[in-house]
Design a protein that fits this description.
The chain is α+β, with helices and mostly antiparallel strands. The protein contains 17 helices and 21 strands.
């Protein structure tokens, strides 16, 4: 379940990235068809890219493992906390409820559409199906079916509407609407998917407006048709309906000059972001070790303690577990509880949980579970000369088979303890979480009241065995790297071809500067955009048409509506001078944009030079590092 949540999180992040790229870089461009494919590509990339995992396999020679079990303290483990599981379960329930609700609403929208189309007369013309209805609905198209109410519009208005809807049908815009709707169902918790859907629908309207006006002689009449359709607030959700709330933006885009083709470079800006996403989240490193017998070293001491080991393996029966529990309570007064026992079809143990308690002195817990049979482990009881008991778990078969294992007696805890895993300072909680089987080496240094534990894992050991290591351009040994505090690292470069690891520490920056390393080039400054876009005139609110048929319906209401429409049209006629003034302002705006566009062309040329300078800089930097 955690993997599913991680997948949803990665996909949601990619959706947000594509939306930001469209909103800040492409929204105001007139590349409507290219924007359509960019937005669709963003959705499919968000679904597929998190599933692409690049695997890097490292083959290394096995190294001896030095388990210093005597240095591991006994930790008191509290009762198991299921809070995280409850949180995941609660999130799953909330997600399912939201998804189920939206799926139901989606199905209801299909039912509403079928209800509108059922029993209506269909007129066919070439590729299109036309349905003339009597309901007060905004004109819409669904695939190749175009629905409208001819009694509500004049001949010119109806011609404009049909040209618009034909573009939706010919270019299959219904597919885009359905895809965006399905993504809203799956990623309903992501606020950006709703903005994304709105951007897709808005861009489809831009496409239809742009294509329709190419076939219509009177562009202003088309704009007035847009305004009139706003009176119809009823529409079918899953269709391409002529009415949209963003009428002002559509009119602005209709009057905007075509964007220059040179601006199409903006589409490529998403590529480095996707490369960074794959590099950070989609590369899995798998270390595989050549098979060889592991060598286990056990520290020796002159005075050994008596040790008793209770082994548990995949073939241990329930009766044997009861016997071990009885022996522990009889011999050491330790209460052993075995729970969570699961077995496979071969009656082999696949899961078991062990709790050990002895009053307030000892409380140890261990749990193993999975689909495969468990590995052998043991409960190790050691007793020193003073009669003090030490309880621990061992998971190494050879260690368990030892007749005498030295286990440190209970001792007062040191006042200060520093723990390093692969050179990084961690807490005791991090030490408790590490699997002993992952440990390659562990060194413990004690000085007065201070204790330092340094652990190197198998994966880290394999990596440093393969490569030559340089710290501040000086070759060092593996031991020096292991003792390096990762908090002091400023930069680390891994070269797969040369098999080198180069580390620059914070203290080594000054040293690098003294070597006269090449200075990176300065990027060009982009031109400042300070031109204000003209504001279109404020259009009056159109009257709302009454429900029902204008002939068989409420005649009084329809007469009042006609009067209101006359007033509305009169007000719109008064706005014609303002619309003409707005057209002139847009023309002046385009003229002002010409110098800015030229500055952008100069900036783009400088950027190409800067990119070449950066390539040369990296080449010189690599040459200096190899000296």
């Amino acid at each position: 379940m955690e993997s599913f949540y991680l997948y949803l999180l990665k996909s949601s992040g990619l959706i947000a990235l594509f939306y930001f790229a469209y909103y800040f870089m492409l929204r105001k461009e007139t590349f409507f068809k290219s924007n359509r494919w960019f937005l669709l590509l963003g959705l499919f990339t968000a679904v597929l890219l998190p599933l692409v995992v690049l695997t890097k396999i490292i083959w290394v020679e096995p190294t001896p493992v030095n388990y210093n079990w005597s240095s591991l303290p006994i930790n008191t483990i509290a009762d198991e906390d299921h809070t995280e599981e409850y949180i995941y379960l609660g999130l799953a329930v909330i997600y399912c409820i939201g998804t189920l609700y939206l799926l139901t609403k989606f199905g209801f929208d299909f039912y509403s559409l079928q209800k509108v189309l059922r029993g209506k007369t269909v007129k066919r013309q070439a590729y299109f199906k036309f349905i003339d209805i009597q309901d007060n609905l905004a004109p819409f198209s669904f695939f190749n079916t175009i629905v409208y109410n001819s009694s509500l519009y004049s001949t010119t208005e109806l011609e404009n509407i049909l040209e618009h809807e034909k573009v939706h049908s010919e270019q299959n815009h219904t597919v885009d609407v359905l895809i965006s709707r399905l993504f809203c169902i799956v990623f309903w918790f992501n606020p950006f998917i709703w903005f994304y859907k709105k951007a897709i629908v808005q861009n489809l309207e831009y496409i239809a407006d742009d294509e329709a006006t190419k076939k219509i002689s009177d562009k202003k009449a088309y704009q007035f048709t847009l305004l009139k359709i706003t009176t119809h607030e009823n529409c079918v959700a899953i269709t391409n309906h002529f009415y949209q709330s963003l009428i002002k933006k559509r009119i602005v885009m209709l009057n905007k000059n075509q964007s220059k083709k040179s601006n199409s470079w903006k589409y490529t800006l998403i590529l480095p972001v996707l490369v960074a996403f794959v590099s950070l989240f989609q590369i899995e490193t798998i270390a595989q070790e050549k098979k060889s017998e592991q060598i286990i070293t056990v520290p020796s001491k002159t005075n050994e303690n008596s040790v008793d080991v209770y082994k548990i393996n995949k073939n241990t029966t329930d009766e044997e577990l009861k016997e071990k529990s009885s022996n522990l309570i009889e011999n050491y007064a330790i209460i052993a509880t075995f729970s969570g026992i699961k077995r496979n079809s071969k009656n082999e143990l696949t899961a078991i949980k062990v709790d050990l308690k002895k009053g307030k002195e000892i409380a140890q817990k261990m749990e193993t579970k999975g689909t495969e049979a468990i590995n052998e482990f043991g409960i190790i009881i050691s007793k020193n000369d003073d009669g003090m008991l030490t309880v621990n778990f061992g998971s190494d078969e050879k260690m368990i088979n030892q007749k005498s294992i030295v286990v440190a007696p209970n001792a007062p805890s040191v006042t200060e303890k520093e723990i390093f895993i692969n050179g990084k300072k961690v807490s005791e909680d991090d030490l408790d979480k590490i699997d002993p089987n992952e440990i390659s080496t562990m060194n413990v240094n004690k000085n007065d009241n201070q204790q330092e534990i340094r652990i190197i894992t198998n994966n880290h050991r394999k990596m440093i065995n393969e490569n030559d290591i340089y710290i501040n351009n000086e070759k060092v040994s593996q031991n020096e790297l292991e003792r390096l505090d990762q908090n002091t690292i400023e930069r680390m470069d891994v070269n797969k071809d040369d098999k080198t690891i180069r580390i620059t520490t914070k203290n080594g920056i000054q040293y690098s500067q003294e070597r006269n390393l090449p200075v990176p080039p300065t990027p060009p400054i982009p031109p400042v955009f300070n031109i204000k876009t003209p504001v279109p005139p404020a259009f009056p609110k159109a009257p709302k048409a009454p429900k029902g048929d204008p002939i068989k319906g409420d005649k009084k209401a329809w007469k009042e509506f006609e009067k209101k429409m006359e007033d509305f049209e009169a007000k719109m006629k008064k706005l014609e001078p303002q619309m003409e003034a707005f057209d002139k302002q847009m023309g002046e705006f385009d003229k002002k944009m010409e110098p800015f566009n030229k500055e952008m062309e100069v900036f783009e040329k400088k950027m190409k030079v800067y990119e070449q300078q950066m390539e040369q800089y990296y080449s010189n930097l690599e040459r200096e590092r190899k000296k």
